[in-house]
Amino acid sequence: MTPVFHANNLTFQYNSVVALSRLSLTIGEGKRVALLGANGSGKSTLLRLLDGLYFADSGSLSFCGTNLDPAIFEDDEFAFQFRRRVGLVFQNPDVQLFSPTVFDELAFGPLQLQWPKKEILERVDAVLDQMEISHLRDRPPHRLSGGEKKRVAIGSVLVLDPDVLLLDEPTAALDPRSQSQIIDLLIGWGDGKKTVITATHDLGLVEDIADHCFLLQAGTLVAEGRPAELLQDEDLLRRTNLIHAHRHRHEGNGVHSHPHRHR
Amino acid sequence: MTRFIERTIAGLTGTMSYVLSAEESATSGGLLQGIDPRVKVIGILALILSSALARRLWVIVSVLAIGLILAIASRMELGKLARWIWGPALLFTGCIALPAIFITPGRSVWTVPTLGWTVTEQGLRSAAYLLSRAEAATTLTTLLVLTTPWTHVLKALRVFRLPVVFVVILGMTHRYLFLLMQSAFDMFESRKSRTVGVLHSADRRRLAASTVGVLLSKTFHLSADIHLAMQSRGYRGEVYSLNDFHARPSDWCWLFVFLSVSILAWRLGQ
Amino acid sequence: MHIPDGYLSPASCAALYATSAPFWYVALRRMKRLLNTQVVPLLSVFAAFSFVIMMFNLPLPGGTTGHAVGVSIAAIVLGPWGAILSISIALMIQAVFFGDGGITAIGANCFNMAIAGSLVAYALYRMISGRVAIDSPRRIIAAGIAGYAAINVSALLAAIEFGVQPMFYRDATGAPLYAPYPLHIAIPAMMIGHLTIAGLAEMVVSGGVVAYLQRAEPGLLRRTAPGAATPNEAPATGWSKTRPLWAALALLMILTPLGILAAGSAWGEWSPDDFHNQTARTQIAAASGNLAPPTEAPTGLRKLANFWTAPMPRYAPPFLKNPAFGYILSAMTGTGMIILAFVSLAWITSRRTPE
To answer: Which domains does chain C have, with CATH numbers?
Structure first.
């Protein structure tokens, strides 16, 4: 079976900083995958390469067997198909919510893909319901809370019914309640037929949303495996800055330091 | 000495709260709120034009009065309008019009006792034209904006065959106004709290310039990321606008009313 | 300086909309060709930035504060076409949504500030900065001068638009229907505030931001610095050294209509008829230490007065009704003729000198 994504020796430079260096990985269809790494490890860059927004300086990246390069995106048919099948939820919702209202935002993708008006209206209303944001239909983005923005952002991608969902730090800067809402949504979505790739440094999230992890550091793949295995290796986690040791106080036992992670 | 920071913060806060209150009033139930945006855009523009073309004072004042009536019927808070619109326009245009009362040549009407300045009839008329036209246009424009969500105003502008890209850009600009205003506000607030003692004038200028510079950087990075987000959902250069407007019979009636009044005002004003 | 509704006649407004439209059209085409799909997000966010900048209270030397339009910054960072569009968009939103500037006056405001302002700022910045390195202090000065000149050109255009109104638009009683002040009042009234405070604010923010960008993000300055020397290269000499002078000359030409403000005629520049005219006689006397002029013009003056009839008498070409345009046209013609004379002289003498 053709893997959804196959990267081979991917190298990418941005503003004369090497973001990815000879990265190779394979992601199968229907898998739920986590890209783990501290900030600056190259996770976001990799997601943008997977979404066909950046293109590798050297090495190759293919989607379902087709090599992703600028030339192939010139072809309208491929471009529209790819944009529908692969969706990226950006980390900063203010970047993703660029339309005047929530309705316009959800309708943007279908409009670009030239769906008929009636179908757009139906689909948008359906997703508004699904994300429980129908009451926000005519709201401008600057009057939404952080959690609401995130739900609109996810909705704006889900409206296209993608096969692959890419998420960049989906729970960053969210309050705990919103976080759990997003996690519930991610767990429930897909039913094993959709591929979900989540970039995060939140270790508490990983076991719930992924069956397989890739651990990145400084643009290279350092380890991969099942979440349970990787999370056991405290040495590895500390080396890649995913956990740390600092002084803190335990009740009754005074002040000391040992490796731990914050929930 | 951070007066310029405080004044800027005050300006930003004022504008941001105006944007918010405009959004609220645009969705409250009043006369104009319920009319199709396209009818409103055409109608209000027609009224503004008729007040601009009029050569008779009473016609201009009548248009202003119509605006007032519409404002009351649309549940506008007149006190707020006075503070936001009428007051500033009166002050600004009043100051500009005042000298005209004395220096416009014509038939003298009154002489100021000690100064010997003469007030001419032509001067008074001229000042009256200026003031009434400014107030009428401002009232009508504000009415349109306070009773219609901004995105509807933009989409309605398409009836004038304005290009879609224009409407899309105006919408996106408006959307990011608030974000940039908030960024500027945050930057100034933090600088205000970190500034102790007196700032020399060169430092003050450098502070202002670097705030502008940071905002400029943010602008470019933000627009680059937005571009990526747009492309991610299929954007390839074409822009589209989807409107959900349905004109009802009452909207057609209103269109008729607006246009008739405007044409009448135009004819009577010549 | 945002012109409200009611100050310009509908005809003037329509004319200015019509004048602005081709610039908008060309600007959009150019930007699309340059930036392709990035045009929409870049112009939108930059317009929002322009809007916010216009709200800043800027500290000026002397303790005052002022507001700037940021036209020079826009022109330097986006190029002239991008600046035209983004400032126009900001002005449109200010007019429609915030009532700052009239709806009927959008064409006028965009023409004065966004279009003329951007083009003047860009031209001056490029002329003065030449090909010096991105981090050269000359760019800071160039930006400041470009901003100052641009805002004053905008103010002058607005003043001309105001001043022309009472000439053409009066009601039956003779009262002006729109802006009531003639040119010789409108121009100084507008220019005083802009030559001082507003111009200074524009200069300070333009220079300041370029200085900041040189340190923090020099890449943003590259769009309008093609062929800029890298820090190790020496800048081009010769022609570039005279550029500031050309810029100053152009500026002076644009400012010549200020001559309209001078009432009466210069000392000694009288025609024989002035000696019969009572008003002129009073002016001559006042300018000559209150000595009454002779009742008749001197014979020599009378004989030679009509020896030569100028093609553009009194700096007012007969086909141009507007004295301000007449002045500018006269200035351009005069300067052009002088330049032509010197260039011809240089050409003749260089041919005579053996190589």
So the answer is: 10-224 (1.10.1760.20), 237-259+312-355 (no CATH), 267-308 (no CATH)
